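In this section we walk through a basic example: taking a raw amino acid sequence and producing a predicted 3D structure, encoded as discrete structure tokens. The instruction is simple. Fold the sequence below.
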Amino acid sequence: MKKYIYKNRGSALVTVLVVMMIMMVLGVSILRVSVSENTFAKHNEEQLQAYYVARSGAQAIAEYMIQDGNDDADDLIDAGFSAPNSQIGNGEFRVSVDEDATTGAIVITSEGTFNGKKDIVKIQLEESLGGLFDFAILAKNIISNDGNGNGATITGGEIASITDEIDLNDKVVYEEGHTSITDLPPIEEPASYDGDLSDYTYSGKEKYGYLINVNAGEELILYASSVKLGNDNEKIMITGGGEVHLYVDGVVELKGSITADGSKLYIYAMGTDAFSMAGSGLTFTNVGIYAPLRLVDYNNSTGNDPSKVLDGIIIAKDVMIHNYTTIVYNGSMDGFNIDTSGVGVRYTGYKWIN
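The resulting token sequence is shown next.
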């Protein structure tokens, strides 16, 4: 037995030496792996920091745009990337806010940088329900017809009531929308006017009324104690391609047409007097009506003539429609001089899209 052990002493030593060499090699490998993992971990940590910096930047801009009641944040849209901002830890971010040309969605892109590592994230803002000028008809309270709304049609835009009081029979063709607006803002009367509507009195062959010319890119601010067009020979005609903003204190009674081809007429009906548009085959082209304290009564029997319509928008406390009344809205009558801050939130939230 002793002899056997003696003869195997050399092989045991060799085994120990081999194991020691393996352990040495393995130790170097483990050290290399450890150093590599530390480097990788550091790289990952810096990349992760860049990601969180980008997220923080995007989130900060999204929250600002959601809480912005004055629509100042709209100036950021399509303005390109901002200058780098270094207010988040040791990193910095830059953002751009863009409107998708196809969907109209507002997307915030934020690029975060930390120790030379970069990451990009995107947020899409979620818009609130329709705003003040997004509907063919918007009423604070009731939109109704008198049971004789045969064939009345509202096209090119939805109708909405702030209090959800739409009472139209099944003979009226329309699409119902909804709004997050809580009230109609008041009319703020201008400090001064460019003139009185009576300054533009016109009388011609078989036609009379008012003829107003205002150049494209310009606006004219006028006052009227009341507006009465007695029949369809009495008209308001606006030419030149500009805008007329007409503030009316008293009764508005329109039995004649308003033509503003290429131009726009915005009527601000102050107070609580009557506002009626009543006739047969009347045409109201590019007309916006804002009457937050009035009932607007629209009774225009068109006889199914597609040209005899109100091409514009009605915003009022209450709206009553009759007969073959047709309203066409293309979304262009949004130039009212009305302070919309605080009437509703344009953006209600956001979602991460990458």
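Looking at the output, two observations stand out. The chain has two domains: 1-130, 137-328. Residues 1-9, 14-19, 28-37 have pLDDT under 50 and may be disordered. In the next section we compare this with other chains.
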